[in-house]
Amino acid sequence: MQFDFKYKETWLHKLNPSFKLMTMVVLFLSVLFIHNINFMLNYTIVTLLLFLIFSGHPFKRVLLILLPFLFIFISSATSMIFFGKGDTTWFKWGLIHITEESFFRGIHLGLRALTFAGLGITFALTTRPVYLFYSLMQQMKLPPRYAYSFMAGLRLIPIMFEEFQTIRYAMKVRGVQHKRGVKGFYEKLRVYSIPMLSQSIRRAHRIAVAMEAKRFSQVKNRTFYYKISFSKFDLLFLLYFIVMLSAAYFLSKQFPYFPITDVRYE
Amino acid sequence: MNNKGLKLTDILVTIVIAIVFGIVYKLWTPVYYAVKPFGLHFDQLIYGMWFIAATVAFLIIRKPGVALIAEIAAASGEFIVGSEWGLEVLIYGVLQGLFAEFVFAAVRYKRYDILIASLAAIASAIASLLFDYYKGYLDDLVAWNLLLYIVARVVGSIAIAGVFAYYLVKALEATGVTNLVRPASKEDYDALDK
Questions:
Q1: HSE (CB half, 13 Å, CA atoms) of B26?
Q2: What is the number of CB-based contacts under 8 A between chain A and chain B?
Q3: Nearest 5°: CA angle at A15, between A13 and A17?
Q4: pLDDT tens digits, one per residue of A190-246
Q5: Which residue of B has its CA nearest to A30?
Q6: Fold of the B13-181 domain
Q7: What secondary structure letter does DSSP report for A97?
Q8: Buried b vs exposed e over A143-165: b needs ≥16 C-beta within 10 Å?
Q9: Coil, strand or helix at B112
Q10: Global ipTM
């Protein structure tokens, strides 16, 4: 969801949003059945390539977006590396016990997290929320009252931030000082969250009454301002994954990086 | 009382609450990996924040389906703005919301106390653990470490999505805003008869 900085539109932007989402959900579930680290590594490369080349954002920004991925990779891998089951000990220190098996299993988990992150960020960067909800209404038959509620809700985000600023200024001008420590943190949480939540609910209620009066919840005979359909790019998207993942699978069988076929502990 | 499904008002209020928490969910990720010192599972203590939308929304609106929609909407909000966890959040969100919804449904949406909120939080924690089991090879962790992982997550869930959520809604009740969106209760009808 990008409002304020420029990017090029690529073929990924032209995909049918529902189709893109469903494909990615299938890919997500398929990853759960991959236990071969060689295939997993190739799989990760295939998804990250799509993001690196076709996101339409300048390369520098793409690298910046990749930075938190590193944390995700490390944080997903470490628990299993340090505390996983295994027999071939590499390193032992106190509670930490690194074995060959746990190490590769940890890396495998890190790669999984990277794949999910790659797919997710590709979707987020190449999909306009409005098109997504129009597409969900037209192709997935999502009831309009859900879709329009969500779109209206997204529009409230900037107002929420404005309100946050207002509360901050109001407290500043009155010279409110917060205590330090846990109690101060709780106090701060309270003075911000209560007014922000209550105002949001009031506003949402007012908008909803207006929307209902204007028949936004009507299902029958509804017409749509945006007509979302399928195109040749959807086929291309499907083919990209079929061809690339087949190649990834074949290569992992023919030229494995590691002599491991299943990272699970038997 | 007309209880046939949720009206647009209920849905919009649910979704707006969910979006507020969706932003919290997104901001929670850096917090989460900041408290992750080498896998001793301190991070699991704060994992419960990702279940809070379901309980808060239900405690405010008190209608069937609200918990599920809130958790899905919060997860989608987090997903659409580009979560580091990517697709994971969406799929976890659906299951977490569903499990919380089951708990509220089991008491026929008639109880709004701190116990039921905590039970819903535990249910969400179980949902997330189920996914972790398949996704993260949980059973391949050493036994003591696995136990620590589960206990930390459940305790954290109760504290954040159960107890904290309950008091948050209590404070909101004091502002009177909840009267806008709740269905009329039996006491309201009794008050009319007097």
A1: 19
A2: 190
A3: 95
A4: 888 899 999 999 999 999 999 999 988 888 888 899 999 999 999 999 999 999 999
A5: B135
A6: Arp2/3 complex 21 kDa subunit ARPC3 (1.10.1760)
A7: E
A8: bbbbbbbbbbbbebbeebeebee
A9: coil
A10: 0.86
